[in-house]
Amino acid sequence: MPDSAKPSAPIHFLRQLRLFLEELCCEIARFQVVGHHGLGAEAVTVAREVDLGVPGAFADVVVRAPGRPPFFLEVKVGYAADRMVEHFARKYQAPSPAVPGADRVIVVVDRAGRPDFPELEARLRKAAHRGLALEFWDEERLRALVTQCFGVGLPAMTDEALADLRNAIDDIKWRWAFGERHVESPLKTSLLWHFGYSRLLQLHKVHGFSPEQILPPRRFRNAVVLLADLSSFSSFVRDTRDDEVMRDALTTFYSGSRYAVINTGGMVSQFVGDELLALFGVPDVQDGYALRALECARSLLHIGSSVSNRWQREIDRVQPAGGVHIGIAMGDIQSVLYRPFCRSHVGVVGDAVNVGARLLAQAATNQIVVSNTYFRTLPDREQAAFQELEPLEAKNVGLIKAWKLVQQSSYSTRGA
């Protein structure tokens, strides 16, 4: 990258830059797989912060496609060479039991300002197990891929230039979803945030929805409400001296969680503090939408553990627990305008939101607690993993019949 992205750049800028490049490279990887193998975009799964089955080890990105081996993508811009090799060995020195059959790692790395790059490349190849090929995307390669995918240039790595690039890419995605007819819609920023372009494209193609028809004030029946909350958040904040560390952790959680929701066909309703509210089955009920909510919840468990692991490495006091806990309910909800005649800002209310919040409060770290109505929509193979709970006493709601799914914690207070 240009000078601002060399290892000497401010660490907090580099963290934001890596998150931005991770989002960008997810789209490029999907674009490449679809183009090279003739698949539909919906057939390609791109997941972030994936547990590798090794304590404290998460892949930045895992890409899966039917009939193809999965592969990893790691964004390592701005890392010192020794730290990069250490991270790489921890993740990839042995085949991952959680992602079997993976055959390569794409490493996004800055070559400029690294006179020892050939040596670094050799060290990284040596750190990976024999069955894993390495492919490097340096500045030149990444610049070409951005142009190929989005038709825009990769600018200098400054706050202003990257903000302009994000806006330009959002404009392109909006056109991909709606064509040229709605280019000036005031709902562009809001709808892209809530749904992502691929879901908007689907809604436009299948139902012919215009932007104004996608999220009107109305009742949505049988929606799935998912709430996720970082565990021990107050404790982490209390023991964090540097406010930038806390802000970086939250931005990482927001970015990864939003990606998990929109890539499983959901809608990001809002973030409040460290809590996510997401909806499935809004504005239309798709086949398998309830199961995709569970898929999203499992991804969120990985993301929460990864965020907590990174945060723990930045502070002195050991936090006994880290990760997320999740509540899922099902029922009718209502979308409500925050301002009259303004579709850009919409809230949701309903009994399912209230029940979901009560279930979230009952879930322990790395647990998913779901309502009975939602549980009954799941296939038998998924139901078998749940345990029935004693009826939950929920204030202002009553007794709730609920089920829990427990995942082994990937949170580790050790490791680099």
Describe this structure in words.
There is one protein chain. The chain has 2 domains: 1-157, no CATH class; 215-416, Nucleotide cyclase, GGDEF domain (Alpha-Beta Plaits, 2-Layer Sandwich). 43% of the residues lie in helices and 24% in strands. It has 14 helices and 15 strands. The protein has helices spanning 11-37, 81-92, 117-127, 139-150, 159-178, 188-195, 197-207, 211-214, 233-238, 243-262, 289-312, 351-362, 372-377, 380-383; strands at 45-51, 58-65, 68-75, 104-108, 133-137, 219-230, 267-272, 275-280, 324-339, 342-349, 367-371, 387-388, 392-394, 398-400, 402-406. The strands form 3 sheets. Strands 6, 7, 8, 9, 10, 11, 12 and 15 form an 8-stranded mixed β-sheet that branches. The chain has a 5-stranded mixed β-sheet with strand order 1-2-3-4-5.
Q: CATH superfamily name of the largest domain?
A: Nucleotide cyclase, GGDEF domain
Distance between the termini: 24 Å
The CATH architecture of the largest domain can be named as 2-Layer Sandwich
- Total domain modules: 2
* SSE order: HEEEHEHEHHHHHEHHEEHEEHEHHEEEE
Helix-and-strand structural type: alpha+beta
What name does the CATH topology of the largest domain carry?
Alpha-Beta Plaits
CATH class of the largest domain: Alpha Beta
Instruction: Specify the biggest β-sheet.
Output: 8 strands, mixed
Helix content percent band: 40-55%
Q: Quick one: how many beta strands?
A: 15
> Strand percentage, roughly?
15-25%
Poorly predicted segments = 1-7
Distinct helical segment count: 14
